[in-house]
Amino acid sequence: MTDAATLVRNYLTLLETCDPNPARYSDLLHPEVAESEYAYQLTQPERHGVQLAAQAFSLEHLHTCANDTVVVEARWWGEVGADAASFTRGQQLTAHFCMVFELHDGKIYRQRQYDC
User: Fold this and answer.
1) What DSSP assignment string belongs to 51-82?
2) Could you identify which of 7, 18, 73, 94 might form a hypothetical disulfide with 60, taking C-beta atoms 3.0 to 4.6 angstroms apart as the criterion?
3) What InterPro entries does the database record attribute to this sequence (predicted)?
4) pLDDT single digits (tens) 7-18
5) Could you tell me the pTM of the whole model?
């Protein structure tokens, strides 16, 4: 079984691919996963009118807790892939995140995300 920190790192690495195919996430996400609106935006950017050409996470801190919880502080970078609303192709976006992951049965069960 993958340890909690590795599972979360693998999830963030997969998000970087901008792959919206749910099958790619099945080894990482619990069938009853609940994510915040912000996490959904990252995995489905077109829902918000923005397509990403690329994105990456830089982990600043990762803390594992005894109760199958992982807390991540990260910086996110994204490149807009197409003109949409006030965004232009090639525009660079950045944000700082605090993400709290709760695991169940060795998969991500809950994710709360706070960004700025």
Assistant:
1) -EEEEEEEEEEEEEETTTEEEEEEEEEEEE-S
2) 73
3) NTF2-like_dom_sf
4) 999 999 998 888
5) 0.81
For residue 4, give the amino acid letter.
A
User: What's 57's domain CATH number?
Assistant: 3.10.450.50
Give the phi and the psi of residue 25 in degrees, each rounded to 5. -95, -5
Which residues, listed in sequence order, are joined to residue 113 by a DSSP beta bridge? 99
pLDDT digits (tens, 9 = 90+) for 17-26: 888 888 999 9
Task: Calculate the CA 51 to chain-centre distance.
Answer: 15
Count the domains in the chain.
1
Rounded Cα distance between 75 and 12, Å, is 12
**Residue ranges of the chain with pLDDT lower than 70?**
1, 36-49
Q: Are 4 and 68 in contact (CB under 8 A)?
A: yes
Residue 49's pLDDT is: 62
